[in-house]
Amino acid sequence: MTIGWLQIIVVLAIIILVFGTKRLRTLGSDIGKALKGFKKEIKEDNDSDRNS
């Protein structure tokens, strides 16, 4: 069983109705900042391993 476009659209609509667009926008930026910080820490960890 595959997920079609209609099911994805319905799920997204429900999420928007439950959380609201403003809360989703802040959630998206928070996730983006977390991923950016995670990538930075991984890069720093790899750089310190190479220098040792």
In brief:
The chain is mainly α and 52 residues long.
Describe the 3D structure.
Belongs to the TatA/E family. With 52 residues, the protein is mainly alpha-helical. The chain is 88% helix and 0% strand. The relative contact order is 0.07.
Key features?
52 residues, mainly alpha, 2 helices, 88% helix, elongated
N to C succession of SSEs? HH
Strand content: under 5%
Radius of gyration: 18 Å
What share of residues is helical? Answer: over 70%
First-residue to last-residue Cα separation = 50 Å
Oligomer: single chain
Tell me, briefly, the overall form: elongated
Largest sheet: none
Mean pLDDT: 86
Number of strands: 0
Supply the number of helical segments. 2
**Poorly predicted sequence stretches spanning 5 or more consecutive residues:** none
